[in-house]
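Hi team,

Below is the intake form for DUF554 domain-containing protein from Emergencia timonensis. Please confirm the fields before the structure is written into the shared record.

FORM ID: S-0412
PROTEIN: DUF554 domain-containing protein
ORGANISM: Emergencia timonensis
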Amino acid sequence: MAGLLVDAVSIIAGSFIGLLLKKGISKKISDAIMIGIGLCVVYMGITGLTGEVGTILLLFSVIIGTLIGTAIDIDARINALALRLEKKFVKEEGSTFAKGFVTCTILSCTGAYTIMASLNAGLGDNAMLYTKAIIDLCVTMMLASTLGIGVMFSAAVIFVYQGALALFSGVLSPLLSDEMIGAFSCVGALLTIPLGTNMMGVTDIKIANYIPAIIAAPVVVWLMSWVSAL
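The structure came back. Fields below:
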């Protein structure tokens, strides 16, 4: 629990610092910073990909995850939540609240590091979450300086998401093999790339609808190993 709280506080603190910086940044500079952050996110995604995970596995994981995510329309639900919060807490015209909320939420939830850190925290090891807290402090500071207060509100969703993983870590950890961990790590990295291009304004992909692909990846690994054992 300590690691989860520290990470949530780091997101709020980073966002607060970013909001202070935002006041002195022109739109031209803000847009340039966002493109720079987007490039870094794309780089993170590319470096997170591994040749050890087969293309067929990735393909099946993404297709299954996309079917589930699109059927549920996760993207619309997250945006609807963001818009409700925006109407309640933000009155200014042309607000980027929803974009900041959604971007920060997805950036955190698609990361394999987040999943592993949360599982470890549930087993009593908070080291990875403390490291993530430092990273989140820096990332949210940059995001909030361009996208505003919506980034801060994402802390609540991220806390619940990581808390759920930590809560069920005792059940999940023994079931995850190295191949499964590698698979969802690779799919998470893959989804990070279009998130970066979205931030740069190059694409407008509904990344949230692809999030179930991360969960589908280890299941596909298990199915493929089961079939090969027949």
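SUMMARY LINE: Residues 27-48 form the longest helix (22 residues).

Thanks, M.
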